[in-house]
Write a structure and sequence with these properties.
mainly alpha; 3 helices; about 0% strand; rod-shaped
């Protein structure tokens, strides 16, 4: 075996190990990295959770807007006003029994 064959065999081994290392690194990055498959699945799950939370908050906001509109000067709901006054001020009629 001459020196050229030994160096070409060594160079081929180094090249092969480098290629295997790079392929392994990029495969790992594609699966586990910041922009990998698992991170994408986490982001999609978080997006679904946040969309559900947004829907709940929007419905809660609609209820609050409705109550606010019903207590406004343009449209006054006397039953709601009575309910709020009783709750906030602790008022009760003379013929009612208050249970705490």
């Amino acid at each position: 075996m001459n020196t050229e064959q030994r160096f070409s065999g060594l160079a081929m081994a180094v090249f092969s190990l480098t290629v295997i290392g790079l392929v392994s690194y990029f495969t790992y990055a594609a699966v586990q990295g910041d922009y990998g498959i698992f991170r994408r699945m986490q982001l999609e799950a978080e997006e679904a959770f946040l969309r559900r939370e947004l829907a709940e908050l929007q419905s809660e906001r609609a209820v609050i807007e409705n109550r606010t509109r019903r207590l406004s000067t343009e449209y006054l709901d006397l039953d709601l006003l009575d309910e709020q006054a009783r709750k906030v001020l602790g008022m009760a009629r003379g013929d009612e029994i208050v249970i705490d």
